[in-house]
Write a structure and sequence with these properties.
Blueprint lengths: L3 H18 L3 H16 L1 H7 L6 H12 L5 H12 L6 H15 L2 E8 L5 H15 L2 E8 L7 E5 L2 E4 L2 H22 L1
Parallel strand pairs: 1-2
Antiparallel strand pairs: 1-3, 3-4
Helix pairs in contact: 1-2, 1-6, 2-6, 4-5
């Protein structure tokens, strides 16, 4: 079976390119998000997996539910997906669209794991520092994990800044273990 992201990518790119050309990034984001939420609905999932229903029937049902939440181009997009039996890929198309949109708008998501909740002031300072360092707009997602003991771990894309006390303890442990092995090999 093919990777859903690989299948979704060209559809997301087409929607994104059209949205950029029409200056409708937020509208397309909203339409794709709504359609993706429809597809992951438990009842819709049953229908998508039921061979009695064709994608044409399912898209008609989705369009009826959507009402005026989709413009004509959004409806055409869903019809296109139905004609290629790709309705089930809408959540992946939405994810890919979000990635393209964020890159276009120079937005990066930063995931911060902290032992304690960050105050609004500290979160704001952290966001400003990251925006300055990476020269882009940062969307901060803060999670609390007491197991990090203190400090914070920040992940932006494939970059990680690990300033947690737990990380420092692991480094110290590795350093002490290495010294112990060296001392044992010398004796």
């Amino acid at each position: 079976m093919s990777d859903p992201g690989t299948i979704a990518r060209p559809y997301a790119k087409a929607a994104f390119d059209y949205a950029v050309s029409q200056q409708q990034l937020p509208q397309w984001e909203s339409m794709l998000q709504f359609a993706a939420l429809l597809v992951v609905d438990e009842q819709m999932q049953r229908l998508l997996n039921d061979p009695k229903y064709t994608d044409r029937q399912l898209v008609k049902l989705m369009l009826d539910i959507a009402g005026n939440r989709l413009d004509q181009h959004g409806k055409n997009f869903l019809n296109l997906l139905a004609s290629y039996e790709r309705l089930a890929y809408l959540p992946f198309i939405f994810q890919q669209y979000e990635i393209l949109k964020d890159a276009h708008l120079k937005i990066e998501e930063a995931y911060v794991v902290s032992a304690y909740p960050l105050s609004e002031e500290l979160a704001s300072q952290l966001k400003q520092s990251l925006e300055k360092k990476y020269q882009c707009k940062i969307e901060l997602n803060v999670m609390v994990d007491p197991s990090v003991i203190g400090g914070a771990r920040i992940r932006i894309g494939d970059r990680v800044i690990d300033g947690t006390a737990l990380s420092k303890l692991h480094l110290l442990q590795n350093h002490l273990n290495a010294k112990e092995r060296i001392c044992q090999s010398v004796q």
